[in-house]
Every structure is written in structure tokens, then in C-alpha cells.
Amino acid sequence: MSGALTRPAVVSHVSDLIGRTPLLELATTETGSRLLLKLEMFNPTGTAKIRMARQMILDAEERGELRPGGRIIESTSGNTGLGLAVVAAERGYTFTAVVDHHACTDKLRAMKALGTELVYVDEDGGGEELATAAREELAEEMARGKDNTIFTEQHNNPSNGVGYFPVAHELHEALDGRIDVLIGAVGTGGALCGTTRELRKLIPEFATVGVEPKGSIAFGGPAHDYYQSGTGTPEGAEIGALVDFDLIDEGVKVGDVEAFATCRAVARTGLLIGGSAGGVVYEALTRLGTLPPGSTMVALINDGGEKYLDTVFDDAWMNARNLLDPAAEREIDELLTKLRRN
Ligand SMILES: Cc1ncc(COP(=O)(O)O)c(C=O)c1O
Description:
This protein has helices at about 50-60, 80-90, 105-115, 130-145, 160, 165-175, 190-200, 255-265, 275-290, 315-320, 325-340; strands at about 25-30, 35-40, 70-75, 95-100, 115-120, 150, 180-185, 205-215, 250-255, 295-300. The protein is α/β, with parallel strands linked by helices. The chain has two domains: about 15-45 and about 165-340, Rossmann fold, CATH 3.40.50; about 50-155, Rossmann fold (3-Layer(aba) Sandwich), CATH 3.40.50.1100. The longest helix is centred in the C-terminal third of the chain and has 16 residues, at about 325-340. It is globular and about 60 Å long. It starts with about 20 loop residues before the first strand and ends with a helix. Bound molecules: pyridoxal-5'-phosphate. The site of pyridoxal-5'-phosphate has 19 residues, from helix 2 and helix 7.
């Protein structure tokens, strides 16, 4: 897959703009280590997930499960749905997203604008608890036995991982194979495990660190609700088939307070990142100084902060949930300032 970094000057489909996302050096240490952010919000829809959305559709077409005029159904917290909405629109499919009121409203409104039918699993308005398990049950039920209708089932669909293979090639090409640590959020596991699987073929020796919210169950620990959107495995949901523990050298948990404080501190460097990326960057910054001199750590940034202006970046919303922690923000600010000076 050479030439992963180039694209024609003019393209004819939005999905032709997927990939080739930039790398931003966020921090460096006195010992010459650096933290690079793979800015996946530069994909259409502002998130990495459109990579796997396209792959799931192309593979279903190839298997003959999806034919012209077909219908796609998926349970989504928003980002996967946005990707499916774009690719379905381009290829003439109907797309139904099974969602809940926990999802970020901007993602839901954008899907609707792109022509998606939204079906709420919690029609009464629900609470703020995650409804992942109920969403998946309903999506499966809606697709069962219907001709030319597929439930893409992102948690168990191998195409989800394959959709991220190009990320490995982009990184390998951009960094001349010099990657020591890859760190990223783990929800379905598609992004981190898919990238790792392909990258291990290109660079055998690097460590993969998975990050999930505190309260999520893939890496153990007590289960409870959390606000980092689109990531983790909430209690009651099955750990996805793509979460491959053999590919993840270390699994860590970051709380909402630290994750969101990091988003807010990073924003003051000029970059808006989403809540799950806040958790990843928090963990990355904490361990950057402990790496051998001259190391390169790459953090996968699943989406940007624009979708979270009413939540992570809204003081009243944060305060109402006891998530605002100015002292934690200051600490991260100071760490960032120090690491950006080197
Ligand atoms: C904002 C955000 N972060 C992290 C993830 C987790 O990525 P993955 O499902 O590939 O593990 C997702 C997935 O939807 C997401 O939308």
C-alpha cells in the first residue's frame, strides 16, 4: 500500500477524502522523546469511524449481502452512524441508526441532515445511562429475516478492524517506521487493534496501549456510568470481538475528570479534541517522560472537540456532573507547557 500519503487534487466522492490524516507533535521531552497525535478528525464527518463504516459496506457488497436499494441498520453512539450515513448516501442505500439519548445531539442532528432515519431505543427520553446493549438488540431484531437488509454489527464485524489497516500504512510511511508506542481508545477495539494488527507486519517491535474510561469493563475494575462518549464497554454490553487482548500490551483506565481536564487544557494550545481522545492524551502525557530517550509515541485521536462544546467544554454541564476540576486542568496545563518547551 505505497503512496498512502498522496491523493488526487480533485476527487468526486466525499469518501475519497477518507484517510491521509495529519500528525501533530503535541509534546517533546528533554530526552528527545515525542508525542505525536494522529488527527483522525480530519476525516470526513470529523472522526476515524468513517474508515470502518466504508469498509463494512464495501465488504457486505462483496459478499452479496447488500445490493442496490438495500438497507443498512446499525446501533451507534453517533460517529459510526455518521460514517455509514455518508457512505450509504453515496451508494444509494437507506440507513437506519438505532440510537439513545446518551448520544451527543450534534452527531444525531448531523446524521439526520445526511438522510439517516433515527430510531431511539429510549423513546421516553431516557436518562443519561448508556443503552448500548438495548440498542444492539433492537438493531438485530429490526434486520432479522429481512431481504437486502444488513445489521453491520460493528462490535463483531471483522471489517471494522480492516478499515483501519490504512492507518498503519500512513503511520509507517510518515514516520519511516519509527514508532515505539501506539496508544488509543478502546470501544469496539476496531481502531486500535486494527491499526496494531497491520502495523505489527511493518514494525514488529512497538508497544500498544489501550485506554478505556473508568467504569468500562474491558480491562477489569468496577463498572459504573461514564461520560466519555463513543468509547469503552459499559456494563451489560458484550466486549466486542475486535478487542484482541493479544494485541494490546497494556490496558489502562482514565476517569472522566482527567480525560475532560485534558481536553480543556489541550484546547488552550489551539486544538479541540473529543472526550475519549482526552483520556488517551492524558495517559500519553503521563507516560511520555518514562519512555527510553528518543522514543516516538503516537496517539490515535478519534474525534475533535467541536461535537462536545455543549458538554466537555461547557462549565455548567461539567459542574452539574461534578466533572469540573480546575486543579487537575492546571496540572495538565503546566505539564503541557513544560513538555511543549523542549
Ligand atoms: C469518540 C470515539 N472515541 C473512541 C471510539 C472507540 O473506537 P473503537 O470502537 O474503534 O474502539 C469511538 C468509537 O465509536 C468513538 O466514537
